[in-house]
Protein: Phosphomannomutase/phosphoglucomutase
Organism: Streptomyces drozdowiczii
Amino acid sequence: MTADLSQLVKAYDVRGVVPDQWDEELAALFGAAFVEVTGADAIVIGHDMRPTSPALSGAFARGAAGRGADVTLIGLCSTDQLYYASGALDLPGAMFTASHNPAQYNGIKMCRAGAAPVGQDTGLAEIRTLVEEWSEKGAPEPVATPGKVTGRDTLTDYAAHLLSLVDLTEIRPLKVVVDAGNGMGGHTVPTVFAGLPVDLVPMYFDLDGSFPNHEANPLDPANIVDLQARVVAEGADLGLAFDGDADRCFVVDERGEGVSPSAITALVAARELARNGGRGTIIHNLITSHSVPEVVREHGGTPVRTRVGHSFIKAEMAAHGAIFGGEHSAHYYFRDFWNADTGMLAALHVLAALGGQPDPLSSLVAQYDRYAASGEINSTVTDQKASTAKVATAFTHEETATTDTLDGLTVTTPTWWFNLRPSNTEPLLRLNVEAKDEETMRRVRDEVLTLIRFSPGENPSPAGV
């Protein structure tokens, strides 16, 4: 029977429950289809610490080799370590991970040579079509000369490349608590931080895909509570939290308070602009704080606003030759990292900025955190378009407001703005509000939520992403 991939192949990757939604047989077909669509004669494959990852990645390798491609296996790695290998070796790559999803999930993040993204519009749809066809009719016969499968360790070279992009030689000693969430940060952090003047306090560094301590999703405030408490207890200078595949990094200051990813985006943007002579383009999505484009302009750069989603950020990075890009979700993209995202490099920038001056992190980031923000709030609705239209109509009375529809609905005034955008996969509307003060932010937030949540048949869902 034809495999049902409708719930498995997402906009940017493959992700689902193993073995209910996919297994090694399907993984082998994905490997063969990946080679067919990319036309690659060699690829690189890595995987995270989930129990199903070695077998799934091995099956993918067999499928790829059966189509004639040589396969380099780099084994356990973070997603940005796989991007490093794809860039440094100039090979298409596949990373087996389900990021922050629960233990029963697994997935594949794929890229072309040089870490160029593979998404629905850049090859993933064609890969899905081939897998569906082959699952019904049978896989194609292996080529006469299958590819070779070899192993390679890239962790040391990955660390060296990151450290070549940030000068940490003169920083003062720092005490840093790192919560790896039993994910791949426990694999990469010890090597990257080795030799730095850092007193490292590790939390949950054991690689365990069952996530026994908390979900490896630091975007949920509940999952950084342990880190916040430990930073305060240790008297540490800061805390870092990585997600399951360690491509995202969240920062906690010396008081145990979370630092907004927008503030980190602004801080890193200022440093990257200084590193490039005060010139360059910075990409930011439309729900990062308005402090980001302000800081970029103040430091001589050009901000470019784009839709939410890494495929849009990466496309704009390439189109504008941008030096850096950041998202509200703590994805950070660097020109010198093949336009790919790496939370580790952003973390090194934070260490360099903090260690290069005497003040605590809370004081350092205050200049980049200028407004009151709601964070992202989800509401379940029966009709996304109708609810959005109702909000748009209600705010036409604001004489100073401007609106745009780059990604959902954005309404902007001199003192506040909000964005309301639909989820692509669930019946949700996602709201972000920012204002010059807390009172204004709450007023606008509550007005919008009242409009979308309290109509017949519509119910609020818990806040969060």
Remarks:
- The chain has 14 helices and 23 strands.
- The first helix runs from residue 24 to 38.
